[in-house]
Specification:
The protein contains eight helices and 17 strands. It has 325 residues and is α+β, with helices and mostly antiparallel strands. The chain has a single domain, classed as Electron Transport, Fmn-binding Protein, Chain A (Pnp Oxidase, Chain A). Strand 14 and strand 15 form a beta hairpin.
């Protein structure tokens, strides 16, 4: 039953909580395939950057990326994607990339706002730290909340370097509070091959977008962000419901640097708090457990072309604070 649904038990619980009908759940499940259609294979092969979700040796999810010239990712057949680049910070973070490890893959074409996702299992190792991924789930996403950007040309990718932080430094806070985009990796409760949730059990990495300031730092050092209406799959919220461990990648597109963190997330369904943020349906809180600043995480700096038109109906933490007086 679970394998046919395409969603694990916690995802279905969240869907039921927010009133997603069984008919809509069935339509959503039908959009999740066990292999990539041709257009998805061509899409991944055309991208210069893929965002990834992986776990470390303690089971903590991290959102990271792999980048190269278009073609560094190849889909030789519908059920496999070869990523011929080592993910940024893979060794420093001790990311699990052996055969049988789970991985989440997200491709975003920033100039056009097109995006596709694939969650799978590492089935082989490639030269240079790359991996061959066997597809568990493949599906597309709508372009909501994606800011259109163009990466700078004529600058070769520089080697990324990271350093662990004791807490949120001023530089880290600056990246967070200026962000209009971040990526969140999450995991189901059971990543084992024998999981009762079948292909729905694994890792996922997803995009979040808003106006600058939508990702906020609280007085106790935790982070919070409003969760806006999406595709109603609730992959991230379902994973938070099931396990709670997440990883965030917050890019500083103007410099090519990024902030990586992993920690524990929870969903605040309190209607009074949600009401502070225009367009929000709930608020997600993240308590960091490890934080890294990564220089040259992105292959190049990126120029903002246009903010998403969907942001007209959304709010930010600074606005909420001003409304609170």
């Amino acid at each position: 039953m679970v394998e046919r649904s395409g969603f694990h038990a916690a995802e279905r619980r969240v869907q039921a909580r927010v009133g997603v009908s069984e008919e809509r759940q069935a339509r959503a499940a039908a959009a999740i395939r066990p292999e990539m259609p041709l257009q998805h294979r061509q899409f991944f092969e055309s991208q210069p950057i893929l965002f990834l979700g992986l776990i470390d040796g303690r089971g903590r999810p991290w959102a990271t990326l792999a980048a190269g010239q278009p073609g560094f990712a190849r889909a030789p057949c519908p059920d496999r994607l070869d990523i011929a680049r080592e993910p940024v910070l893979a060794r420093s973070l001790g990311l699990q990339m052996g055969i049988g490890a789970k991985i989440g893959v997200l491709g975003i074409e920033l100039p056009t706002r097109r995006r596709n996702r694939m969650n799978g299992t590492i089935a082989g190792l490639l030269a240079g730290g790359g991996v061959a991924v066997a597809v568990d789930q493949s599906f597309g996403n709508c372009p909501q909340y994606i800011q259109a950007r163009v990466f700078a040309e004529g600058r070769g990718a520089q080697s990324a370097s990271g350093r662990a932080l004791d807490g949120l430094s001023a530089e880290a806070r600056g990246i967070i509070e200026a962000a209009d985009t971040f990526f969140i990796a999450s995991r189901s409760a059971d990543l084992g091959e024998g999981s009762s949730d079948g292909p729905a059990a694994g890792l996922d990495v997803s995009h979040r977008g808003g106006r600058p300031g939508f990702l906020g730092v609280n007085a106790d050092g935790s982070l919070s962000f409003p969760d806006f209406a999406g595709n109603r799959f609730f992959n991230t919220l379902g994973n938070i419901e099931a396990d709670g461990r997440v990883g965030l990648l917050v890019p500083a597109f103007a410099t090519g640097d990024a902030l990586y963190l992993t920690g524990r997330a929870s969903v605040d369904w309190n209607s009074d708090r949600v009401g502070r943020f225009e367009g929000a349906e709930r608020v997600v809180d993240v308590r960091p457990e490890a934080i890294w600043f990564v220089r040259h995480a992105l292959p190049a700096a990126a120029r903002l072309v246009e903010m998403s038109p969907r942001l007209e109906g959304t709010g930010t933490w600074p606005e909420a604070s001003r409304r609170d007086g």
